[in-house]
Amino acid sequence: METEVDVTIDLEEEILKLKKKLNAVILAHFYQESEIQDMADFVGDSLELARRARDTDADVIVFAGVHFMAETAKILNPEKKVLIPDLEAGCSLAESCPAPAFKKFREEHPDHIAITYINCTAEVKALSDIICTSSNAEKIINQIPPDKPILFSPDKNLGKYLIKKTGRDMLLWEGTCIVHETFSERKIIDLQIQHPDAKLIAHPECEEAVLKHADFIGSTSKLLRFVQEDDANKFIVATESGILHQMKKAAPHKTFIAAPPEEESCSCNECPYMKLNTMEKLYLCMKNKEPEVIVDPEIAKKALVPIKKMLEMS
Ligand code: 13P
Ligand code: SF4
């Protein structure tokens, strides 16, 4: 197994060669570093990536994203090999919701339907009724009969936003995203004063204090579409800063300002899990055909049901 990358090789060229050799597809999330996004066959949000994973005819899926995303790709393709550059690329939301505690939560509310954000483990998906992403959550909730009570897990900020949007009173799990909860309302307001012509756009994982100032709220792909279609030329972007790469590519004449975190010195608007993946690790995982994402077949079978339901309902 190769563990060191020869510094003289052209990483991009070698990755392309390996892609051909493995008959692989590279799927990347918008929060990956720019070089990885530029190498990928497809860059998208959680829902688009799940759809691409479902529809690919490649033999190997190389998933440049976090573990729950690669796990979803594996559940949709149990016969394919799914590789991830760094197996430790987790997610604070998935970590906030351990399967035994979630099982108990469900047992305490047996009459509730469980709609669960895709940012969770395969075990939690297997215990859920319907999976959703920030792209389709509102649409899915609106299809649930009004008299059916709902448990929404694990992101309480997204949950609160959806309660407001849909008017449905849902019981929320108390999870948060460590990146989206660091944006500072005070500093965003300062920026709005400095740039009165800028529109504030935000991911619904942000806290209510930030969302209430936003001109537009949406998933990563909806934010990307908005900056292309809207008349404004300047945007303050309250989500992980990796998305700015695609925004600058799609609208090079517009200005994008990354929303600042509370702590001056930290890069808290970068997801530390997403950023574990590097070009070197992408090359090594394809060269070594590992780390591979493995899901227990019994869990995968159960988790596939609410994932399929999501794909049908969105
Ligand atoms: P999207 O589905 O909007 O890409 O969000 C994924 C995510 O992890 C946000 O933090
Ligand atoms: Fe998870 Fe937040 Fe990172 Fe998205 S940005 S993967 S929700 S920790």
What is this structure, in a nutshell?
The protein is an alpha/beta fold.
Structure description:
It is globular, with a radius of gyration of 19 Å. The protein starts with 10 loop residues before the first helix and ends with a helix. It has helices spanning 11-22, 34-39, 46-55, 67-76, 92-95, 99-108, 122-126, 137-141, 156-166, 185-194, 208-211, 220-229, 243-250, 279-288, 297-313, and strands at 24-29, 42-44, 60-64, 81-83, 113-117, 130-132, 150-153, 171-172, 199-202, 216-217, 234-238, 255-258. It has 314 residues and is of the alpha/beta class. The strands form 3 sheets. A 4-stranded parallel sheet has the order 2-1-3-4, sandwiched between helices. It is built from 15 helices and 12 strands. The protein folds into 3 domains: 11-89 and 274-295, NadA-like (Rossmann fold); 93-178 and 302-313, Rossmann fold (3-Layer(aba) Sandwich), CATH 3.40.50; 185-258, NadA-like (Rossmann fold, 3-Layer(aba) Sandwich), CATH 3.40.50. The site of 1,3-dihydroxyacetonephosphate has 11 residues, from loops. 1,3-dihydroxyacetonephosphate binds at residues 45-46, 119, 133-135, 177, 203, 205, 219-220.
Q: How many separate domains? A: 3
Distance between the termini: 42 Å
CATH-scheme architecture of the largest domain: 3-Layer(aba) Sandwich
Helix and strand content put the structural class at alpha/beta
Total number of helical segments? 15
- What shape does the CA trace take? globular
Question: Which CATH top level class of the largest domain fits?
Answer: Alpha Beta
Mean pLDDT: 97
